[in-house]
Amino acid sequence: MKPATANKAPVFDAAEIRADFPILQQQVNGQPLVYLDNAATTQKPQCVIDAIGNYYSRDNSNVHRGAHALADRATQAFEGARRTLADFINSPKAEQLVWTSGTTEGINLVAYSWGRSNLQAGDKVLVPTLEHHADIVPWQLVAAERNAQLVPIPILDSGDIDLDAFDQLLDERVRLVALNHVSNALGTVNPIETVIKRAHAAGALVLIDAAQAVAHWPVDVQALGCDFYVFSAHKVFGPTGIGALWGREEILDAMPPFLGGGEMIDRVSFDGTTFNTLPFKFEAGTPHIAGAIGFAAAINYLNGLDRAAAAEHEHALLQTTLQRAAEVPGLRRIGQPQQAAGIFSFVIDGIHAADLGMLLDQQGVAVRTGHHCAQPLMAHYGIEGTVRASYSIYNTMEDVESLFTAIDKAVQLLS
Ligand code: PLP
Questions:
Q1: Which of 25, 43, 197, 264 has its CA at 20 to 30 Å from residue 191's CA atom?
Q2: Residue 22's pLDDT is what?
């Protein structure tokens, strides 16, 4: 993909984008790889791989504390990456962007730091039934500790949040609503603007789990008005092991540290310790420097694309998938959300999802099978799991065709 220049409008061409991703140029099980597991993790363009390699081969050093050239370069790149990420989500300040190991750690940080110091006995945290376990279990753990309650927001069979039920649940004991922007299991695009407005009107804070959203649309945390926003680099073409937590400054400022150690302190003595300012207060120990640099390279890559055209392309892939799916006997899509991102979750009568996944893999088609870390959602539909095909910017209509050719073959073999 050619980078956007000042005078040239960015262009979008999935085939051209595909060429930027070396891993996609291989065969798996003797077939060209058709990678449809993007909701689990996205692949990395060459520029991200290079950014990480270059950092280790030229600049590797610890950050913030060294008095030498490499330490200076590493610190510049690391803090520059923070600014890139902050601009990407339109944060008023770079200091509001805290590095984490990913979405999971971001939610745990808020649960343990904010939750432990703010939840009182009888308080409630609301999460929709369709949440990923990462946005259920931390709240369960902290709620149990604080004698608070984690309350599920019901969903409709379409896979949409039941907004009337949500309204009924919003009372003065609700302190926080935590929800994903996009369900990793169904692709539901949740009405987060509505949820944020209603939750705020009831006096509750809102955390958005954006793990599945940031790769699909531009984000503006100020326009959204949420209180916390968490995401992972690896789902947006960056490396694993790094993510970001964004929070409203006054809330982050008032929160106690999550982990203790080096970097997060102001002064330490055995009489007591004072803490560093934002964001360092929440970044104990040596951070994932190469990860942050790779993350920023991924964001720069994304910024060079025509995002609207990319979103349209993913939408077209899903629409074609839905049309093709209607032709497969016994295939049932799970959920029919009003608005869906490029995720297609389905079952086929009489065929175990894991068996289907294995036969697709033999034909070079990589999908995910199972409960997708959303067991309460699976329980809602009375199923153990689904087969999930999830699209990204480098998938093509040929990939959709390959998926259905592989499904047809697998069904013949299994029936
Ligand atoms: N939330 C959602 C919606 C997800 O899809 C995922 C990963 O699949 C997570 C949270 C957890 O992300 P990570 O494993 O990168 O921490």
A1: 43
A2: 98
pLDDT digits (tens, 9 = 90+) for 305-331: 999 999 999 999 999 999 999 999 999
- Give the integer Cα–Cα distance in Å for 44 and 183: 22
3-state SS assignment for residue 95 = helix
CB atoms within 10 A of CB 13: 14
Ligand 1 center from residue 130 Cα (angstroms): 13
**How many other β-carbons are positioned within 10 Å of the β-carbon of residue 264?**
19
Q: In what order do the strands lie in the sheet with 331-333?
A: 331-333, 343-348, 386-390, 368-370
Determine the pLDDT at residue 10: 53
What was the pLDDT predicted at 5?
41
The CA–CA distances, whole Å, from 369 to 37, 196, 386 equal 10, 32, 6
> What's the chain's Rg over C-alpha atoms?
22
- The finding on whether 209 has its CB within 6 A of some atom of ligand 1 is yes
DSSP-derived pairing of the beta strands 205-209 and 174-180: parallel
Domains and CATH numbers, the chain: 14-44+306-414 (3.90.1150.10), 49-303 (3.40.640.10)
DSSP code of 132? -
Query: What pLDDT does 65 receive?
Result: 80
Atom index in ligand 1 nearest the CA of residue 101 equals 16
Judge contact between 182 and 212, C-beta under 8 A: yes
Tell which atom from ligand 1 comes closest to the C-alpha of 40.
8
Q: Which residues of the chain have pLDDT under 50?
A: 1-9
